[in-house]
Amino acid sequence: MTARHDAGWLAIAGLGPGDAALITPEVTAALAQATDVIGYIPYVARIAPRDGLTLHASDNRVELDRAAHALALAASGRRVVIVSSGDPGVFAMAAAVFEVVEAAPAHAAIDIRVLPGITAMLAAAARAGAPLGHDFCAINLSDNLKPHALIERRVRLAAQADFAMAFYNPCSRARPDTLDRVLAVLRESCADDRPVLFARAVSTADEHLAIVPLPQARGDMADMRTVVIVGSSTTRVIPRAGTAILYTPRSAA
Questions:
Q1: DSSP readout, 156-181?
Q2: CA angle 21-116-156, nearest 5°?
């Protein structure tokens, strides 16, 4: 951030997948200048308290309220950082902020910056090799903001288009069967044994990676800390000691 210290601003920042080493210098600089940090409880917990910094943690289902609060603080002259995990523009807070700005156009005059981060999808892909090396898509499997029928339609069409697919929020206690339903759609649409990567808590002490053929993939292999990457028909596995290398060649048709 290069904004003047006497003017309010709002930075929407990505904290990366978990390891502090994966937070960008740009985000670190914004946090050092901030008077206020706002976000979902576990993300705010990653920010070290210091004099002159107020931490505002809130529940995961109040995104628009959180965005409105951040904008109001910035308008009053505060230096505000909204934190998300991964990248703030990928299923995270940047869209919520701009939804509030669109509804209240006066907020458009605020100095708003989106500071990118490393997404869980990209961190998981890098750990495994390069499964997203050719065309791919990302789909959020949570049905909190869209019906499950739409999720299944998008998965089916992505399979028909032969994209590699990255799934966020594959299941939760409230949605224990979501991933099994999606895997059933994939088995019906793909009819092959393409590899599926289950990447849990990448870059943290709880990291675990597993690669299985699609017919062997099960919903109970994932939780809310897992990103699931399904290869395309051309994605390949290179065996080696430990976790195999997973990649999709760029020459895939």
A1: HHHHHTT-EEEEES--BTTBTTHHHH
A2: 105
- What is the distance in angstroms between the CA of the first residue and the CA of the last residue of the chain? 42
Nearest to 124 by CA among 243, 251, 241: 243
> Full-prediction pTM beyond 0.85?
yes
Q: What is the pLDDT of residues 8-34, one digit of tens each?
A: 999 999 999 999 999 999 999 999 999
Phi, psi of 134, deg, nearest 5: -125, -160
Residues 6+ apart with CB under 8 A from 210: 197, 198, 221, 243
198 Cα distance to chain centroid = 15
Distance CA 22, CA 136 (A): 23
Q: What stretch of H or E contains 126?
A: helix 120-128
Q: Note whether 118 and 82 are within 8 A (CB).
A: no
- Please give the DSSP secondary-structure letter assigned to residue 132: T
Tell me the HSE value of 8 on the side-chain side, using a 13 A CA sphere.
Answer: 15
Q: What are phi and psi of 210, to 5 degrees?
A: -145, 140
Residue 44 backbone zone (phi > 0: left; psi -120 to 50: alpha; other: beta): alpha
Paired with 11 in beta bridges are 81, 113
Cα–Cα distance, 94 to 239 (Å, whole number) = 39
CB atoms within 10 A of CB 92: 25
Are the C-beta atoms of residues 121 and 105 closer than 8 Å to each other?
no
Q: What is the pLDDT of residues 143-202, one digit of tens each?
A: 888 899 999 999 999 999 999 999 999 987 777 789 999 999 999 999 889 999 999 999
| 15 within 8 A of 88, measured Cβ to Cβ | no
